[in-house]
Amino acid sequence: MRNLDLALIRTFVAVADHASMTAAANVLNLTQSAVSQQVKRLEEVLGGALFTRGRRGLAVTDAGERLLGKARRLLGLNDEIWSEMTAKVTRGSVRLGVPYDLIGTSLAPVLKAYTEACPQVEISLVCNSSPRLLEALERGEIDVAVIEEPLGQSRGECLGIERLVWVGARAGNAHLKPVLPISMVADTCAFRPAVLSALGEQGKQWRTVFENGNIEATTATVRTDLAVTAWLASTVPADLDILGAEEGLPELPPFAINLHLSRSQADAPVLELARHIRAGLVRQRQAA
User: Fold this and answer.
1) Which residue of 61, 187, 221, 230 sits 20 to 30 Å from the alpha carbon of 55, by its own alpha carbon?
2) 6 HSE (CA, 13 A, CB side)
3) At a CB cut-off of 8 Å and minimum separation 6, what does 61 contact?
4) d(CA 45, CA 42)
5) DSSP 23-73
């Protein structure tokens, strides 16, 4: 009797979620060759192709579709069993650094789940731009950081890859102004160099409307059509528009969401929080 290798199943799900061997390799911290070999091995075990290549990347075959739902349930059950059977009372404290735009979207449910699972742990939350959080981690001021970084420029653990997109008011016209008004959360925002580089390559003039470390104020300037901004696609509020080439704006590069742990402080609360962050972001990608 043949048994399914969970590592192969995990790789299959990552490729299916990202429609790309390269993106899956970044998420899994593997080489693209290793991902390709694992997919091929799983296809040999199951006796059929799991992916086809289309215009938008890899797409699952009919066999892959039949496998995908069961594969996700299998991985979820595996993680649930592991968590319950190895559960210990975790006590202590942990300092978490998160960018402004992720705390209210991706990480809020993760923190709720962590506090319910580890009620004896005290969490200190630090919100700042990704570059500032990396500096705080190096100084030992935080224990865990979720960082937004240009793809391929990190030593952290890649949890996902996101499109960086232009965002404007619903049916707004700020993007039509001769000098593009831009509202960024802070002048240290991780997206700022990529945004300004893209505008420079296009030869488009721009001016800053707001950079003061307050994401609510940034959102307000966009909602009132005073400016446009750039956010990860998953963080864009439903009442705002994603803008692109049709609106005369340059394409922006993808960004990785990376997990960084303190080199000197990797105790039980830190490691358990890291596990919750990994699992939580994976569930969100699967539900998207």
Assistant:
1) 230
2) 8
3) 48, 49, 50, 51, 52
4) 5
5) HHHHHHT--HHHHHHHHHHHHHHHTS--EEEETTEEEE-HHHHHHHHHHHH
CB 120 within 8 A of CB 93: no
**Residues in the chain, overall count:** 288
**Residues 34, 25 contacting (CB under 8 angstroms):** yes
DSSP 228: B
CA distance 128 to 130: 6
Measured CA angle at 212 (ends 198, 136), to 5 deg:
85
Q: Which residue has 């997919």 as its token pair?
A: 39
pLDDT digits (tens, 9 = 90+) for 99-119: 988 987 788 889 998 888 888
- Enumerate the β-bridge partners of residue 145: 97, 260
Q: What are residue 154's DSSP bridge partners?
A: none
0.85 exceeded by pTM:
no
**How many whole angstroms separate alpha carbon 176 and alpha carbon 144?**
41
